[in-house]
Write a structure and sequence with these properties.
Blueprint (H helix, E strand, L loop, with lengths): L18 E10 L2 E7 L4 E5 L3 H8 L8 H16 L3 H14 L2 E7 L18 E8 L3
Helix pairs in contact: 1-2
């Protein structure tokens, strides 16, 4: 403790060091769309079905969309294969009604990071969400 009676406690955690990602949804003419973004590039695709989402994603062919496409692929795989239709609907409604963005790190063994994920064994691409942001 110092002279004022304060004690400093330090905690050291492993910093995630994947690709920063953002996920949001919007409605257009009654249809739901996802916006998936890397630090610098965003893309939008329909979430009407897996096939429609994949077809929309295939339209983003420029190299600058590489990370955003990967983020969208990882998220959509979980969205369609792990969440029920009710859970998907609830997530879309929550994000749209509150105008929020889900923020996290896209972790992939395909890319080298300061935090090596290759040494962790057979890590699968996934997103570790850490925050929800909303307009003030």
């Amino acid at each position: 403790a110092n002279a004022e009676g304060w004690t400093l406690h330090a905690s050291f955690l492993t910093k995630e060091n994947g690709e920063m990602c953002k996920i949001s949804f919007f409605m257009h003419e009654g249809a739901a769309f996802i916006v998936a973004a890397s630090k610098n590039v965003a893309l939008a695709v329909s979430v009407a079905s897996v096939a429609v989402a994949k077809a929309d994603l295939d339209a983003y062919t420029e190299p600058r969309f590489e990370f955003a496409r990967e983020i969208a692929d990882v998220f959509l795989d979980h969205f369609f294969n792990k969440l029920s239709a009710s859970q998907r609907s609830d997530l879309i409604r929550f994000v749209c009604e509150n105008q929020v963005t889900l923020c996290g790190e896209s972790i992939s063994p395909l890319h080298q990071h300061i935090q090596s994920y290759r040494e962790s064994g057979a890590i699968r691409p996934h997103i570790r969400f850490s925050a929800i942001t909303a307009p003030s």
